[in-house]
Amino acid sequence: MAKKEEKSKVVLEREYIIPLRKEFQKAPKYKRAKKTIKALKEFLAKHMKSDNIKLGKYLNLKVWEHGIKNPPHKIKVKAEKFDDGLVKAELVGAPVEKPKEEKKKTTPKKEEKKEIKEKPEEKVETKKESEKKL
To answer: Residue 97 CA to chain centroid, in angstroms?
Structure first.
């Protein structure tokens, strides 16, 4: 399998205060947060000139904070556009999460394997055997 994403360079980085009220008022109450997410993506597609948009975890949590019926009226977002066309948007002031590194599985050395095999196995007593002793 090919290597996962190689480091992309940030081409464009901007902060926006995105007005959402007029957009989500067009939707019924039970669809407002969903409409807000769509409006965020449309705004970023227009202003960052890309269709490949990913919203961050904390931005999503902020939109859904008060439920589906009551999203925020405006939201401050930091958007980064990478050289491959990907736009990542995150809430301003959100903590930056580092990508998790894969841990390599280490196998025990030959000596350690021998020691494990050489240890005598302890016999586990069953209830019947313990009752016979009494």
So the answer is: 9
